[in-house]
């Protein structure tokens, strides 16, 4: 994972001009004629995280969910699997299988992990809540040490404390943590996390602090104190927003935290509306997503944006606010919403991002004849190069009905694949022999699918684009 962090830092250095693309000012030479068509490639190019909160069961059991998460996002957060009730349900009895699944998936797919969360008033077992001050402190220190140590070097950043401020005029939240340990529980948590993993970025995370208000003022006061002790790196703005209500003060509010020397991050973005959504509402939602993404893209110290779920039906919103929902970037069938396109464009990517898999058409008047002599064709493109590596995206197009495909090419120089997603096979040598995964091999004539990979290469050399031979499997 450290490699992954270095990769994106290198991209930042090499792609400063891309920040202007994100603002619609112009394109760098890297992207002239080759704009990113996934959120991931666009975010990589400007050195930002584009993350998604994931559900372990779907990651394990749903191939299209897995493929979309791997293709579209460069950062993952466990929606529930790293919370205290999932990792230490009984005192000292740690269960990491779900969290491991997510961290392993992220590593396999070259993604970073934003950890969520060590200390929260919710989803914390009752055995913790009943402890006295001394025992609660011991339990907190043990929990943070154990979880942080397990994922040291693999989880890039942590929400150390979550939702410690109430909705009541900026007062501290009246939680069992505050009642038992006093306000010092926050400092204890950050000191412990810093010592446990000195290289991880440590965040304080909360909702309804996106604008300048009493609650964000309290977070600001806490952040000042933690920053002065060098135990805080950033502030997470959850951003569970309502249609048409991106706070007008959001940009200035984030800036005041940056001015403290902190990173900022949009950690749980969703924008809910009254369902069912009509076209106007989806357009307004796209506008709201565009605005939030622009705010982060424009701020060098905004580390990224995480959306709180993949598809509308994956979201926590309808269960908590009945009659509302449709809050995310993908429809239930994985097709991309207008909000997806807005985020892609605000990150500097091009077009609508559609289609990842194009619908087949059988109308001879509108279908160009497939190239003869080959059951499929495949093309590579470099979506974000840096000095010692690059991210590629590849498209496989079926010219006939396929039950599987194989791709092969030989690197002309020092390029070698370091990790890949949505493709399997013998990938790391000079000659690459790839094949479809179980979920993306069946294509009707005219359909296409994508896969991607990162390479390492000699310092400063050009990332070449070899010709790919594609054959039906
Ligand atoms: O795993 C059990 C399952 O075994 C059981 O059958 C089922 C019946 O209710 O519950 C399942 O657990 C649920 C869990 O999500 C996993 O799906 C819990 O009931 C449910 O309360 C829990 O909700 C989560 C919520 O946090 C809990 O507070 C949401 O998925 C999750 O999206 C939400 O995330 C929070 C962030 O952590 C902090 N910020 C706000 C955000 C939204 O509420």
Structure description:
The protein is α/β, with parallel strands linked by helices and 473 residues long. It folds into two domains: 35-346, TIM Barrel (Alpha-Beta Barrel), CATH 3.20.20.80; 376-472, Sandwich (Immunoglobulin-like), CATH 2.60.40.290. It is built from 16 helices and 18 strands. Helix 9 (133-150) runs parallel beside helix 11 and helix 14 runs parallel beside helix 16 (338-346). It starts with a helix and ends with a strand. The model is unreliable at 1-33 and 355-372 (pLDDT under 50). The protein binds ligand G3I. Belongs to the glycosyl hydrolase 10 (cellulase F) family. Residues 36-346 form the GH10 domain. It is an enzyme of class 3 (hydrolase). It comes from Glycomyces rhizosphaerae.
Topology of this protein?
Layout lengths: L1 H13 L1 H7 L16 H7 L3 E6 L1 H6 L1 H10 L2 E4 L5 H4 L9 H12 L3 E8 L6 H4 L3 H18 L6 E6 L13 H6 L2 H13 L4 E6 L7 H15 L5 E4 L2 E3 L7 H9 L4 E12 L4 H20 L3 E6 L9 H4 L3 E2 L12 H9 L29 E11 L2 E10 L6 E6 L5 E6 L2 E3 L4 E5 L12 E9 L12 E4 L1
Parallel strand pairs: 1-2, 1-9, 2-3, 3-4, 4-5, 5-6, 6-8, 7-8, 8-9
Antiparallel strand pairs: 8-10, 11-12, 12-17, 13-16, 13-18, 14-17, 15-16
Helix pairs in contact: 9-11, 14-16
Bound molecules: ligand G3I.
The site of ligand G3I has 9 residues, from loops.
Summarize the entry for a quick read.
This protein is of the alpha/beta class and 473 residues long. 33% of the residues lie in helices and 23% in strands.
């Amino acid at each position: 994972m450290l490699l992954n962090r270095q990769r994106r830092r290198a991209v930042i250095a090499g792609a400063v001009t891309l920040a202007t693309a994100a603002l619609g000012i112009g394109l760098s030479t890297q992207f002239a004629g080759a704009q990113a068509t996934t959120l991931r490639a666009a975010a990589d190019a400007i050195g930002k995280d584009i993350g998604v909160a994931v559900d372990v069961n779907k990651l394990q059991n749903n191939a299209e969910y897995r493929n979309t998460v791997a293709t579209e996002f460069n950062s993952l957060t466990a929606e529930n699997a790293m919370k205290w009730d999932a990792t230490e349900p009984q005192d000292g009895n740690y269960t990491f299988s779900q969290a491991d699944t997510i961290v392993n998936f992220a590593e396999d797919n070259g993604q970073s992990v934003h950890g969520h969360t060590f200390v929260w008033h919710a989803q914390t077992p009752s055995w913790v809540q009943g402890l006295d001050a001394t025992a609660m402190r011991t339990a907190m220190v043990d929990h943070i040490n154990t979880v942080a140590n397990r994922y040291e070097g693999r989880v890039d950043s942590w929400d150390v404390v979550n939702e410690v401020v109430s909705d009541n005029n900026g007062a501290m939240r009246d939680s069992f943590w505050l009642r038992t340990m006093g306000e010092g529980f926050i400092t204890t948590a950050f000191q412990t996390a810093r010592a446990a993993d000195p290289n991880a970025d440590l965040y304080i995370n909360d909702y309804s602090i996106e604008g300048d208000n009493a609650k964000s003022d309290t977070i600001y006061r806490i952040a000042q104190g933690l920053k002065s002790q060098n135990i805080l790196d950033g502030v997470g703005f959850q951003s569970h927003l309502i249609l048409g209500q991106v706070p007008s003060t959001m940009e200035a509010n984030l800036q005041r935290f940056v001015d403290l020397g902190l990173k900022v991050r949009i950690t749980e973005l969703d924008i809910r509306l009254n369902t069912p959504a009509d076209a106007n509402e989806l357009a307004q939602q796209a506008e709201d997503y565009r605005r939030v993404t622009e705010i982060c893209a424009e701020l060098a110290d905004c580390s990224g944006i995480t959306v709180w779920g993949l598809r509308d039906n994956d979201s926590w919103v309808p269960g908590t606010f009945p009659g509302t929902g449709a809050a995310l970037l993908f429809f239930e069938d994985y097709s991309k919403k207008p909000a997806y396109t807005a985020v892609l464009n605000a990150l500097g990517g091009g077009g609508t991002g559609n289609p990842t898999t194009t619908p087949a058409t059988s109308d001879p008047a509108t279908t160009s004849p497939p190239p003869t002599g080959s059951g499929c064709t495949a093309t590579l493109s470099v979506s974000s190069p840096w000095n010692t590596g690059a991210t590629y995206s590849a498209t496989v197009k079926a010219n006939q009905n396929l039950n599987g495909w194989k791709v092969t090419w030989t690197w002309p120089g020092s390029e070698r694949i370091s990790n890949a997603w949505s493709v399997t096979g013998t990938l790391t040598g000079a000659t690459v022999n790839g094949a479809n995964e179980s979920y993306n091999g069946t294509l009707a004539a005219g359909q296409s699918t994508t896969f991607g990979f990162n390479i390492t290469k000699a310092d400063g050399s050009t990332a070449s684009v070899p010709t790919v031979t594609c054959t039906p499997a």
